[in-house]
Amino acid sequence: MTRPARIAMLGGTFDPVHNGHLRSALELRDALGLDAVHMIPAPQPPLRDTPQVSPRQRLALLETAIADTPGLKADARELERDGPSYSVDTLRSLRDEYGEQARLVMAIGWDAFLRLDQWRAPEQLFAYAHLVVIARPGHEETPSSSLVELLGEREVDSVSRLMAKPHGRLLHVTLPSAMAISATHIRQWLGEGKSIRYLVPEAVENAILHEGLYQRWQSVY
Ligand code: ATP
């Protein structure tokens, strides 16, 4: 019998994509034995005080970052949908694509996990996917009681227990190279004309500088 596909979704604004996202995706691929990690930009980031970069530009930076890395995919499906974008719709579309036996994982960082009970119909996520929460340095707050209640008995303590079923379980992971990089800081530093070298892939840095993204004025760099 062939092994069911193992697929993860890593959603985000990727505004812009950085090495924290990329190392997390790669190490998650290896830790869970995934066939593919779909990195899926959301259409509309919240209002920012730095210059706006379009969804297509964020996607293009993500494609540049991933290049031909095996198992990582820049996935435009949320940008192709009209109206607001909800993770549960994205998971449904991945489930349709990979079939009911696939092991589908929604991966989120600890900061996003803490806000999960504010999402639309969070318990519905488990009808389509497992939830894998990635520890993130600098984000150590504890979950609210409503979140703990929502998760009930879903938590398991190993990848094999997670992968025993197609969806519905929760696993916390700490990845080897946990990095304290955030897109907020990258936007801030670019806005101030500071260097972002070594925080994003070189090709992403070059594209950002070449196109003048996130910069209020021409930086001296
Ligand atoms: P911002 O600073 O603009 O909020 P961000 O750096 O948190 O952005 P997002 O695009 O919001 O990036 O993140 C997408 C997903 O990746 C989220 O689940 C987030 O928790 C996770 N993530 C982002 N940066 C890291 C990191 N350095 N390590 C682990 N997970 C991360």
From TrEMBL:
UniProt KW keywords: ATP-binding, NAD, Nucleotide-binding, Nucleotidyltransferase, Pyridine nucleotide biosynthesis, Transferase
InterPro entries attached to this UniProt entry: Cyt_trans-like, NadD/NMNAT, Rossmann-like_a/b/a_fold
Annotated GO MF terms: nicotinate-nucleotide adenylyltransferase activity
UniProt KW DNA damage keyword: no
Source organism of this protein record: Vreelandella gomseomensis
Stated name of the protein: Probable nicotinate-nucleotide adenylyltransferase
Keyword Ligase: no
Pathway: Cofactor biosynthesis; NAD(+) biosynthesis; deamido-NAD(+) from nicotinate D-ribonucleotide: step 1/1
Top-level taxon of the source organism: Bacteria
CDD domains according to UniProt: NMNAT
Reaction catalysis annotation: nicotinate beta-D-ribonucleotide + ATP + H(+) = deamido-NAD(+) + diphosphate
Membership in a protein family: Belongs to the NadD family.
EC number: 2.7.7.18
Role played: Catalyzes the reversible adenylation of nicotinate mononucleotide (NaMN) to nicotinic acid adenine dinucleotide (NaAD).
Domain Cytidyltransferase-like as annotated: residue spans: 9-188
HAMAP family (UniProt xref): NaMN_adenylyltr
Pfam families from the UniProt entry: CTP_transf_like
